[in-house]
Amino acid sequence: MHKALKIAAVISASLWLTACGKQDDGAQAQQERPPTPVGVMIVEAKSQTIQVELPGRSKSFLEAEVRPQVSGIITERGFIEGKEVTKGQSLYQIDSATYKAALVSAEADLARANAALESAKAKAARYQTLVKTNAVSVQDFDEAKAAYKEASASVTVAQAAINTAKINLEYTEVKAPISGRIGKSSVTAGALVTANQSDTLATIQQLDPINVEIAQSSAQLLRLKSKLKAGKLLKSDNATVTLILEDGSTYEQPGELQFAEVSVGEATGSVTLRAEFPNPDGVLLPGMYVRALLNTGTDPQAILVPQRAITRNNKGQAMAMVVNQDNNVEVRIVTTAEVIGNSWRIVDGLTSGDKLIVEGLQKIRPGATVAPQVLTEDTPQK
Q1: How many CA atoms lie within 13 A of 253 on its CB side?
Q2: Please, which pLDDT band fits residue 4 given cuts at 50, 70 and 90?
Q3: For residue 256, which of 276, 284, 271, 272 has the smallest C-alpha distance?
Q4: Secondary structure (3-state) at 270
Q5: Is the pLDDT of residue 69 over 60?
Q6: CB under 8 Å to 251, separation ≥6 — which residues?
Q7: In the predicted structure, residue 380 carries a pLDDT above the cut 60
Q8: What band does 377 get if pLDDT is binned at 50, 70 and 90?
Q9: Are the C-beta atoms of 46 and 357 separated by less than 8 Å?
Q10: Nearest Cα to 49, choosing from 251, 292, 233, 306?
Q11: 373 contact partners, CB below 8 Å, separation of at least 6
């Protein structure tokens, strides 16, 4: 029994010594392991224009709905649908026979009124002489003067009637109020139209230049004003706007911001901005959905880092790996703003001079000793 206990004690001591030897060998091997090489960039702060991407829709610069101003039958259409028309061009001809007759009648009324005026004027002149000799009564003279004034007013009314008849006759030729591209015609020759009807005959839109109405939420606007007030952003004097089309391409013509609405839409909670763009080739059409890039200000101390250098932890927080003075890896929780190109703009968590690890992240862990290699623009990415 004692002999068996002695043998067990010897075996246990041997196992313990073996385990200690392996731990010592592992620790020694870890200490002798060379630092992991990593690629780093030196964080720099520089001035950067900050842009915001907002949704918008294109809208014609000018738009005119063509409606008749007199009633009648359409006898002729003078344009090709979808083509350009010029201001003053004849678009429709309304049957003018009744309006020509109305003008002739008005001219006859004027002639009759002029004749009555001449008679009344002569009578008033005679009575003015006769009243001095008591050949006519003062009452008769007053009535003659009143008749003369009434005849004069009738002439004015007749002249106004002629002007109205001429205007109505001109309105039988429906002309383009603006230059632009005309759309589909809602009527054909032979159709009956009425003055100031609700249905349009056609619509003309001026597409060069063209407007883009952009929606910016009131919350975005408040944050922007807060940053400008705090000095985190400097106000930009550049009102240039860049468009991203529905297919993802960038519109080649830059636009200019014209104005911002002074009220917030109750239904959308957003402020409407309007930008104007040249459209010589007619690429932009009214109603197209676009994305607009606007300059919101300038960050005088912007820190931009490659997107690949920023990862997320289990809590969803953005974090970066930096190398400290002892060449050990540190984890920094950072606050990101927007993506500019292929980089994140960092607003908190990094400072100028930090050595940010951008390559070899998969081979390191916090606290590990590394051999940093500063990367330049000419250094090939691994």
Answers
A1: 17
A2: very low
A3: 276
A4: strand
A5: yes
A6: 242, 243, 244, 245, 277, 283, 284, 290
A7: no
A8: low
A9: no
A10: 233
A11: 37, 38, 39, 40
Tokens of 315: 């809590």
Residue 9: phi and psi, rounded to 5, are: -65, -40
Instruction: Assess contact for 63 and 203: CB atoms under 8 A.
Output: yes
Given a cut of 50, whether residue 66 has pLDDT beyond it is: yes
Q: Which of 378, 337, 375, 379 minimizes the C-alpha distance to 356?
A: 375
| Cross-strand pairs, 370 | 36
pTM, rounded to two decimals: 0.62
Element (H, E) at 99: helix 97-130
At which residue do the structure tokens 């008849």 appear?
A: 165
Local structure of 255: helix, strand or coil: strand
Q: Is the pLDDT of residue 333 over 60?
A: yes
Q: Say how far apart CA 45 and CA 350 lie, in whole Å.
A: 10
CA 114 to chain centre: 61
Edge-first strand listing for the sheet containing 173-175? 173-175, 90-94, 72-77, 192-193
pLDDT at position 71 is 93
Phi and psi of 268, rounded to 5°? -105, -20
Residue keyed to tokens 């459209």: 279
Q: Which fold has domain 50-61+207-298?
A: Elongation Factor Tu (Ef-tu); domain 3 (2.40.30)
**Topology of domain 68-95+172-199, CATH:** OB fold (Dihydrolipoamide Acetyltransferase, E2P) (2.40.50)
What kind of architecture, by CATH, is found in domain 97-171? Answer: Orthogonal Bundle (1.10)
Rounded to whole angstroms, the Cα distance separating 187 from 179 reads 20
Query: Of 31-45, 209-223, 257-271, 357-371, where does the model show the most confidence?
Result: 357-371
In whole angstroms, give the CA distance from residue 107 to residue 158.
8
